[in-house]
Amino acid sequence: MKNVMNFIKKYWFQSLLFFFLGIFVAVLIVLLVWALFTSVKENVDFLDNVMGIPQKWRFDNYTTVLKNFKMDVSKVVVIDGKKYHNTVAVELFPDIIYNTVVYTLGSAFARALAPCIVAYVAAKFDKWKISKLLYVVVIVTMIIPSVGTGPATIKVAQAFGVYDNLWGNLILKFNFNGMYFLVYLSSFKMVAKDYTEAAYLDGANDWMVFFKIIFPLVRNIFGTIMLINFIEFWNDYGAVLLYLPTHPTLAYGIFRMSTTTITGLSTAPIRIAGAMIIFVPTLILFVAFQNKLLGNLSTGGVKE
Amino acid sequence: MVNNKKYKGMNQLKKEQVLFAISFLVLPLLQFAIFYVYVNYSSILMSFQKFDVLTAEYKFYGFENFLQIFSDIKSGDLSVAIENSLSLYIWGFVFGMTLALAFSYYIYKKHIGSKFFRVMLYLPHVLSNVSVVTIYKYFVDACVPIMVEKVFGYHIDGLLVDLYTQYYTILFLSIYLSFGTRVLIYTSNMSGISESVVESAELDGITPIKEFFYITLPLIYPSVVDFILIGIAGIFTNQMLLYDMYSANAEKSLQTIGYFIFKKTQEGDFSMYPYISALGLIITVILTVVTLVVKKLLNKFGPSVD
Hints:
The complex is a heterodimer.
Chain A: H1 2-39, H2 43-48, H3 60-67, E1 70-79, E2 82-91, H4 92-124, H5 129-143, H6 150-159, H7 169-173, H8 179-190, H9 193-201, H10 206-217, H11 219-235, H12 238-243, H13 250-257, H14 268-293
Antiparallel strand pairs in A: 1-2
Chain B: H1 2-46, E1 49-52, E2 57-60, H2 64-75, H3 79-108, H4 114-126, H5 129-152, H6 163-176, H7 179-190, H8 195-203, H9 208-219, H10 221-233, H11 242-246, H12 257-266, H13 273-301
Antiparallel strand pairs in B: 1-2
């Protein structure tokens, strides 16, 4: 009895946490398995047999989603100098796929590159005033929230011609603020000066030193940050809704499909099949790169 | 002569360094100047303006937008959204932060299944919110009533249909999806704790729960403070997944300020932009003060490493 009491006294906390973690995992697994079964059901089967295994396996629900995956957007067309609003159907291939690739890859690259090059200047010229100023700017912008600036951003983006512009949107994403600046800054500060001094003695200039010596040393961090941002932008539809209304991406399309009333596409199995489709690339990336995603990306740099 | 040459050489080197710094900084700083500084300036300016439908221009309107906002809060139009935003933060703080710390501690101590749990806690963060919400919506409305009837024997409506359970059903999902990054950061910081400190405490017979409160928490306290402050900064931008769930049609009783602002911005109604900008300005000022005060208090009264 005493041994049992000692066991409980020693392990009750871990056991309680294991229980709660178990609930968390169970909820996730149940939701995903149920979604998988539901996505291949007929609608009648879903209504009669909500929780059961499909009576008929309708894998063509996925092809139905892909075949009907198009969106109507209102575009401004100029004819004889006059502007007209025209409703245009944007198809999955090639438009939505093109929009998705440019938006996710481009935005992820911009979001990874901007803090990298700014942090390098701040680390390299740490005795200059600009270095301290950059650090203060990043900290201040992290502390002070910018609320309700969406309308002003739209207005300024329209004035500079980057509103509703797929490539112009990359300029909106090319900002150096946020925690990635701090991650890069501490990584660059940890790079031993021996690496670069030898290169300078051999006649290399600053650009050569950065691209041939420094950047290869932090490419893992760059890759991880780009990967994290790729997943974020792949799933993002809010910014597309606000700043790229006539350039829908896959995520935006899935969002529209989740609320559509079009016959044949508004049933639960079809909507859930659509929801599952967008999971696939990020799941593959997660499985392939989980060590990088779950790695120690802290202000102390990545530990491998 | 030699000194002159050396001086000219250093001048040249400094010029090259300045050129290099400019080449790397010009685009990011220009972007910052336009899309952060100028946007915030425009937003502040817009909050004192009104959109003239006849001339399609913004004109000076004084403090009318601010007065309208205070009037809307008094009349109840905005107060429900403010309450929901605060409630979301408090629930998130009480349950979300507590569980995130506890889960992180479990993973850090490498207990049974810790690697598996670490992956599973982060997985929802990788999946699209829209997709998770779509699946969750159908599950809680279609499956949960059946499960409750089978297990407990009484009938309930779908959790999102029943007005009483709607808010807590969405709140649950919102907190559920919030663990990923927090657990990742906390476990990374916990793994940096010196093993000798832990070992000597274990030799003194410390229990796991005492170790958590007296060793682990004080040593990772700076990142806990960071997340508390990030949470405060996000009180009035958090949409609580409402747009994912209802698009622009969420009921007023459910709305948060974050959802309200996003919805009004997305609608493209130019006449509402000054109102949104004014609301954003009020919130920014309040949150900046609150963030700084809370930061000071947390640093002053938080657990000490000593």
